[in-house]
């Protein structure tokens, strides 16, 4: 059997697959050079089973083809969207507001020197564009207020550090609001959390990449092959849900540009249980309802509290 792990990360899913079945080949893809290095190291222990690939979802088709994988031949694809724990836990990568680091947020690290960092975004874009990013990708209700605070602060000094940005966002709110927001575990979350999410998604073009990744998975899976997706916020899950239901996202809901993503997302259902318009789905759902973590899972891995798992079989 042949599988594609589209988000290798630290290798947890790939290792679990190898433990379940040793007679498989896994193409381990990641856009992060650090993850790719780990995949290469693991492939030394499993030389016949792991093929490490470095690239974005939008590069995966070319990478698979150059590795000799033909369309319609994969038995399974796993796609774990978003940022990895490894990236969050490395302050130098600039993803987390909990520890100070350079305001970077590029999943590709330094592979593309011309790719803008989060610092480039907050220091260069005008107030309206910043507010649009925070509202669209961070689902931040106070996007205008935060964007205004960022523009005011950068007129005095450049914004280059994660905790510097977190302090600027916090300064736009009264002290009582700093940790007033709650997560799904009813734990207090910093008021800048959604700002960081919005910037990260924008910098890495995550929603466009996700859609291309889903299309690639569909193309390379064989009939009867299985696709398993994990998403961690509503923007990702809406795209996955629409894709699996066969709703046209190439014309009115074209995800080929960030501008049109915004249009698509405005028309997506915010209610996961709301009935979607019928499309020509190419998938059979393994379970009717989306799977979410149980209490024991959340205790073991609190970061997975918002995870949504969808699994489908290609027709």
UniProtKB/TrEMBL annotation:
GO molecular function: rRNA (cytosine-N4-)-methyltransferase activity
Keyword S-adenosyl-L-methionine found: yes
Subcellular location: Mitochondrion matrix
Keyword presence, Transit peptide: yes
GO biological process: rRNA base methylation
One GO cellular component term noted in the UniProt record for this chain: mitochondrial matrix
Main location per the UniProt record: mitochondrion
Keyword annotations: Methyltransferase, Mitochondrion, Phosphoprotein, S-adenosyl-L-methionine, Transferase, Transit peptide
Reactions that this protein is recorded to catalyse: cytidine(839) in 12S rRNA + S-adenosyl-L-methionine = N(4)-methylcytidine(839) in 12S rRNA + S-adenosyl-L-homocysteine + H(+)
Pfam families: Methyltransf_5
The protein's role, per its UniProt record: N4-methylcytidine (m4C) methyltransferase responsible for the methylation of position C839 in mitochondrial 12S rRNA. Involved in the stabilization of 12S rRNA folding, therefore facilitating the assembly of the mitochondrial small ribosomal subunits.
Family classification: Belongs to the methyltransferase superfamily. RsmH family.
NCBIfam families, alphabetized: 16S rRNA (cytosine(1402)-N(4))-methyltransferase RsmH (TIGR00006)
Protein name: 12S rRNA N(4)-cytidine methyltransferase METTL15
Species assigned in the record: Psophia crepitans (common trumpeter)
Taxonomic classification: Eukaryota, Metazoa, Chordata, Craniata, Vertebrata
């Amino acid at each position: 059997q042949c599988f594609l792990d589209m988000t290798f990360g630290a290798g947890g899913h790939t290792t679990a697959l190898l433990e379940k079945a040793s007679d498989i080949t896994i193409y381990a893809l990641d856009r992060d050079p650090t993850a790719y290095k780990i995949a290469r190291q693991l492939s030394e222990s499993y030389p016949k089973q792991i093929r490490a690939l470095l690239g974005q979802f939008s590069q995966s088709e070319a990478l698979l083809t150059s590795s000799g994988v033909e369309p319609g031949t994969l038995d399974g694809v796993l796609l774990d969207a978003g940022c990895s724990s490894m990236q969050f836990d490395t302050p130098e990568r600039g993803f987390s507001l909990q520890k100070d680091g350079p305001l970077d947020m590029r999943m590709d690290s330094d592979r593309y020197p011309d790719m803008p960092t989060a610092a480039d975004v907050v220091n260069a874009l005008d107030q309206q564009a910043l507010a649009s990013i925070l509202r669209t990708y961070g689902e931040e209700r106070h996007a205008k207020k935060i964007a205004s605070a960022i523009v005011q602060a950068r007129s005095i000094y450049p914004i280059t550090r994660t905790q510097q940005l977190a302090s600027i966002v916090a300064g736009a709110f009264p002290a009582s609001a700093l940790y007033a927001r709650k997560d799904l575990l009813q734990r207090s979350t910093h008021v800048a959390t959604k700002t960081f999410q919005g910037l990260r998604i924008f910098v890495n073009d995550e929603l466009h990449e996700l859609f291309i990744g889903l299309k690639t998975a569909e193309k390379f899976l064989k009939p009867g092959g299985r696709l398993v997706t994990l998403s961690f916020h509503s923007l990702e899950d809406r795209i996955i849900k629409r894709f699996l239901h066969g709703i046209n996202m190439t014309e009115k809901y074209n995800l080929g540009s960030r501008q049109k993503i915004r249009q698509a997302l405005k028309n997506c259902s915010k209610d996961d249980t709301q009935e979607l318009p019928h499309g020509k789905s190419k998938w059979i759902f393994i379970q009717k309802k989306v799977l979410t973590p149980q209490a024991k899972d959340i205790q073991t891995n609190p970061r997975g509290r918002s995870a949504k798992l969808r699994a489908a079989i290609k027709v």
